[in-house]
Structures are given as C-alpha cells and as structure tokens.
C-alpha cells in the first residue's frame, strides 16, 4: 500500500512540476508566441512519454510483486497443510492409544 501512495505522490508532483515549468516558460519566454506554443507542445509530448514510461515501470513492478506474493502464498499453504496433516496423525495416534477399539470404530465410520 505504501508503494502505491508513494507512486501516486510522485506522479502528482511530476505532473504538477511539468505544468509549473510550462507556465513559467510562457511567462518568461523571450520568444514569439508561436515558438513558445511549439516549445510547450514539445515539452508536453516529452512529459507524456515520461509519464507513460513511469507508469509502465510501476505496472511491471506491481506484476512482479503480485507474482512473488502468490509464490509465497503457495509455500505458506503447503507448510500449513503439512502441519495440519502432522497434527491429524498425532491426534489419531493418541486416540488409538487411549481407546483400543477406536481404530475399528473409526474405520467403520
């Protein structure tokens, strides 16, 4: 969850910084309006490309994290199944020791 918050804050800052830079370029540019518009358009294209690249990297990292979490979940599930089976065997052994006829009754049920 923390990575998503950090990524969201980064993206918001990235976009806001790009817009602030474009506004400053408009106000302080010593060139004609047509040249300024062309420059802003080019900067917008570059900003969009960087944002898409960052988003692609974030998606890739998220996919890797999901795959890793699934793998860890499978390992944990197998460990728990083994522990449950071990506990079941221990309980069955204790029952068999306590009640000599318990195995026969259990087999019939």
Give the overall form. Answer: rod-shaped
Number of strands: 0
Number of helices: 3
Strand content: under 5%
Amount of helix:
over 70%
Largest sheet: none
List unreliable stretches of 5+ residues. Answer: none
Please give the alpha-carbon distance between the first and last residues: 49 Å
User: How are helices and strands ordered from N to C?
Assistant: HHH
Based on secondary structure, the structural category is mainly alpha
Average per-residue pLDDT, rounded, comes to: 82
Report the C-alpha radius of gyration, rounded. 32 Å
Count of the domains? 1
How would you explain this protein's 3D organization?
This protein is an all-alpha fold and 109 residues long. The protein contains 3 helices and no strands. The protein has helices at 2-28, 33-98, 102-108. The longest helix is centred in the middle third of the chain and has 66 residues, at 33-98.
List the helices and strands and how they pair.
Layout: H1 2-28, H2 33-98, H3 102-108
Summarize the structure.
By secondary structure, this protein is mainly α. Helix content is 92%, strand content 0%.
Please name the defining characteristics of this protein.
109 residues, mainly alpha
């Amino acid at each position: 969850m923390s990575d998503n918050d950090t990524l969201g804050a980064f993206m918001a800052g990235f976009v806001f910084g790009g817009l602030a830079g474009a506004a400053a370029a408009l106000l302080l540019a010593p060139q004609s309006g047509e040249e300024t518009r062309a420059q802003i358009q080019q900067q917008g294209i570059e900003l969009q490309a960087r944002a898409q690249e960052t988003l692609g990297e974030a998606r890739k990292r998220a996919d890797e994290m999901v795959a890793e979490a699934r793998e860890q979940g499978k390992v944990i599930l197998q460990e728990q199944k083994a522990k449950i089976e071990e506990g079941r065997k221990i309980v069955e052994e204790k029952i068999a020791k306590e009640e000599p006829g318990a195995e026969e009754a259990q087999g019939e049920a």
